[in-house]
Design brief:
The protein has about 160 residues and is an all-beta fold. The chain folds into 2 domains: about 40 residues, no CATH class; about 120 residues, no CATH class. The protein has no helices and 14 strands. Strand 2 and strand 3 form a beta hairpin.
């Protein structure tokens, strides 16, 4: 028998033994009724970078926890989601909130509010750097749970900076 260990599952174990993420684990034995295989997959939080060949998200990152992608919803933020930047050195904290959406794990990180998104300059203006202002807490929920509270913008990919 073989089990595929997902690439995101660094620190996974099978029957208490460490295994390599992104590989298959072969279990060879004589099977009997009642045999058990204990697969432990850690749900570590990761900040993943977009492929630079994708123009729309170049220089952006997303938050993942285990196999789940998280999103930043307007309802949770102190600023417009289009203006949020995730700090490069920001660590991500996990917080399970049983009262939110029948129980979800929320991810929190430090970010900044970019001031370059202004409707009075849209769509074109002379070249100028996007200035970054105050620090804020960025809150993300699992992708499957978004759009369940109120209408508003949502983003998966946030600029770093």
């Amino acid at each position: 028998m073989e089990l595929r260990i997902p690439a995101w599952a660094e620190g996974a174990t099978v029957n208490g033994e460490p295994v390599h993420a992104g590989e298959y684990v072969r279990i060879e034995q004589e099977w009997s009724v009642g045999d058990v295989i204990a697969l432990q997959l850690p749900l570590a939080t990761r900040v993943v970078a977009a492929d630079p060949r994708v123009d729309a998200v170049r220089g952006c990152v997303a938050l993942e926890r285990g196999p789940l992608v998280s999103v930043v919803e307007q309802v949770d933020q102190q600023a417009d989601v289009d203006d949020l930047h995730l700090l490069p050195e920001a660590s991500v904290a996990e917080s399970h909130q049983s009262a939110l959406l029948d129980g979800v794990t929320v991810l929190k990180a430090r970010g900044r509010v970019g001031t370059g998104h202004k409707t009075d300059r849209w769509p074109f203006e002379p070249d100028s750097a996007d200035s970054v202002a105050e620090e804020v807490e960025v809150i993300a929920v699992p992708y499957y749970a978004w759009a369940n509270r109120e209408l508003g913008a949502m983003r998966v990919w946030l600029p770093r900076g």
